[in-house]
Structure formats: structure tokens, C-alpha cells
């Protein structure tokens, strides 16, 4: 890890931010009814952590990005003819410099990925990379405590061939949400559902998003 010769003051500032930001609530609701869930918006992460960074003389500057893009293209045929479709998946490894008013600095890195039907995958990937870099750098918990945090693992039931939300990385859930929300017609939605049937059916927010998208097409 690259850093300034001394990190005494910047370390104090990081600890002060950690002490000030005890947690960030999941303040947005995705889906509806029994299948809805709470999420942490990117703007809240930047606002809450950013305010404490300013108070403690910290700033973060992006210095580099390495991305890998995979484009899948296929054709779909329906009663209206054949259309060319594509899905753009982008992985981004990012680097930042965390600066302090004392002149001290630390180089840190992040990772994110995103999926889009056009050119927004890179933006989604870098947005998530910065969001989770900030959350992990300052050890900020989000939402309520999971069962695994306040009970012994021996007391937990063994899962029976079903993927639960706690077993799925939040970024993976977002990737599937992007795929679902990026569908332009019912045939695209069917293709996405066929690819991710297991995870979509077993993850409430993905199932709710799929049903909402399906409903929107039925009323179109």
C-alpha cells in the first residue's frame, strides 16, 4: 500500500469518522408489499460520510480505473420480427488517494461491477466501487443486524437447496436488478428470467422487480 511517510494524523481522522458514523439506515424501498426490501442509496452514503470527512479534514480523489467489459449479443424473434439484443457487463477496479489537511495520504482501492443494455455499465460499476470503498474504509454498518451477528452458527438451520438474501452478495443482486429493469419488452424479460430463474425466485426484491416489470408491459 502506498502512503505518506507519516500516517499519524490521517489515522486519527479516519477513526474520528468511524466514531461519528455509527451506521446508515436503509432508507429507500425497492418493490412493494411482502416482497419489498430496504436499500442504502448512493447519495446517502456520500452525504453522511462526506460530511464527517469534511469535519475531519479528509478528502478522497479518484486516481485510476481498470475496467473489463464483456458484451453479449443475441437475436430474439417474435411475432413482430427479429431484433438484435445486447447486455454489457463491466467490472471496474478503482484506485483513490485519501488526503488529509496535514499533508498525509493513503492510497486505497475499490471494486464494482454493473450491467446495462447500452453504455451505462461503467458508470454503475464505478459508482458501486466508490460507495463500498467508503463503507468499508470507515467500517460503516448498514441496516439492521443480521441473525448471524447475534446468534451462534450452530443454532441456525441448514439451508435446503434455497438461496437466501444473506447468501447473495448485494452487488450480485444489483446486477440482476439492472438486467430486469433494462428489459425493453416481455421477451427480454423472459430471457433474463430464464437465465436467473433460481436467484430471481428465491430473492424477494428480484422477484418483485420482475413482477413489476411484467405488469408494466401488460399495461403498455
Protein model, in words:
By secondary structure, the chain is an alpha+beta fold. It has helices spanning 8-20, 42-55, 121-137, 147-150, 170-181, 186-195, 197-202, 204-218, and strands at residues 28-30, 37-39, 58-78, 81-100, 105-116. It has a three-stranded antiparallel β-sheet. A two-stranded antiparallel sheet has the order 1-2. It is elongated.
State the distance separating the first and last CA atoms: 53 Å
- Beta-sheet strand percentage? 25-35%
- CA radius of gyration: 21 Å
Sequence of secondary-structure elements = HEEHEEEHHHHHH
Strand count, sense and barrel status of the largest sheet are: 3 strands, antiparallel
SS elements, strand count = 5
**Outline, from the CA principal axes?**
elongated
Question: Helical percent range?
Answer: 40-55%
Q: What's the rounded overall pLDDT mean?
A: 81
Number of helices: 8
Write the layout of secondary structure elements.
Layout: H1 8-20, E1 28-30, E2 37-39, H2 42-55, E3 58-78, E4 81-100, E5 105-116, H3 121-137, H4 147-150, H5 170-181, H6 186-195, H7 197-202, H8 204-218
Antiparallel strand pairs: 1-2, 3-4, 4-5
Brief synopsis:
By secondary structure, the chain is an alpha+beta fold.
Give short descriptive properties of this protein.
single chain, 220 residues, alpha+beta, 3-stranded antiparallel β-sheet, two-stranded antiparallel ribbon, 5 strands, 41% helix, elongated
